[in-house]
């Protein structure tokens, strides 16, 4: 007798019982019936094992870095002014006026000097080793053999 996995749509099968009479010699032959009931149940079929690994590798990066340095230059002006001079920007140079009050018969502003801050930019190649991580996952299936109910 062969077994197959039950499907959830199968219903019990019933074969009717009959008796046949052989007309040649009048003998009665009984016909036997079998009944089958089909159902389903959970059976463990295997295991799953998941492993996660972190791999590290050393990588060398070549990236541009911008360096800025400020050069300070003092520029003598020696000029009389009527009002305070504001800080101003001239290209890459920031000009900071330095003023003083001088006592004379009258009080006047004299621009003594300006401090020029010149910004120089330089791009240099910078090499740095960094550690990169990458994850990978392994999935293993392990089948479990289970005895099945067999009715013969």
Draw up the topology in text.
Layout lengths: L12 E2 L3 E5 L4 E5 L3 E2 L9 E36 L6 E3 L2 E11 L3 E37 L9
Provide a brief overview of the structure.
This protein has 152 residues and is mainly beta.
Broad shape: rod-shaped
User: Using only CA atoms, what is the Rg?
Assistant: 50 Å
Give the low-confidence spans.
1-9
Helices, by number, come to 0
What oligomeric arrangement do these chains adopt? single chain
Distance between the termini: 6 Å
Bin the strand percentage.
over 45%
SSE series: EEEEEEEE
Largest sheet report: 4 strands, antiparallel
Number of strands: 8
Share of helix, binned: under 10%
pLDDT averaged residue by residue: 80
Strand order of the largest sheet: 5-8-7-6
Find the structural class using helix and strand composition.
mainly beta
Q: How would you describe this structure to a colleague?
A:
By secondary structure, this protein is an all-beta fold. It is built from no helices and eight strands. The strands form three sheets. It has a four-stranded antiparallel β-sheet with strand order 5-8-7-6, with no helix packed on it. It has a two-stranded antiparallel sheet with strand order 1-4. It is rod-shaped, with a radius of gyration of 50 Å.
């Amino acid at each position: 007798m062969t077994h197959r996995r039950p499907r959830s749509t199968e219903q019990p099968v019933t074969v009717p019982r009959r008796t046949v009479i052989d007309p040649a010699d009048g003998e009665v032959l009984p016909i036997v019936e079998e009944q089958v009931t089909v159902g389903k149940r959970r059976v463990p079929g295997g295991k799953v094992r998941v492993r996660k690994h972190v791999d590290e590798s050393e990588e060398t990066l070549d990236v541009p870095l911008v360096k800025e340095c400020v050069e300070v230059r003092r520029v003598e002006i020696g000029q009389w002014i009527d009002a305070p001079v504001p800080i101003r920007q001239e290209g890459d140079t920031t000009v900071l006026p330095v003023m003083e009050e001088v006592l004379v018969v009258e009080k006047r502003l004299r621009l003594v000097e300006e401090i020029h801050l010149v910004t120089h930019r330089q791009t240099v190649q910078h090499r740095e080793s960094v550690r990169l991580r990458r994850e990978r996952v392994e999935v293993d299936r392990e089948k479990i053999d289970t005895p099945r109910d067999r009715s013969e």
